[in-house]
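Q: Here's a chain of 57 amino acids. Please give me its 3D structure as tokens.
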Amino acid sequence: EGRFDAYPRTGPTSEWDTAAGQAVLEAAGGRVLADDGQRLSYGKPRFLNGAFVAMGG
């Protein structure tokens, strides 16, 4: 319905699982936020992501 576009992810992912999708989503005006409310970052130890939410713009 387009009322709220979000994808919460609580399970583990690797940085290579999210990098391209995050780039496309952000270019389209969306955002990907880590569980601390900051933009999902890269270069973490073992390249593992914690929980995050991807949201449309």
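Q: Can you summarize the key feature?
A: The radius of gyration is 11 Å.
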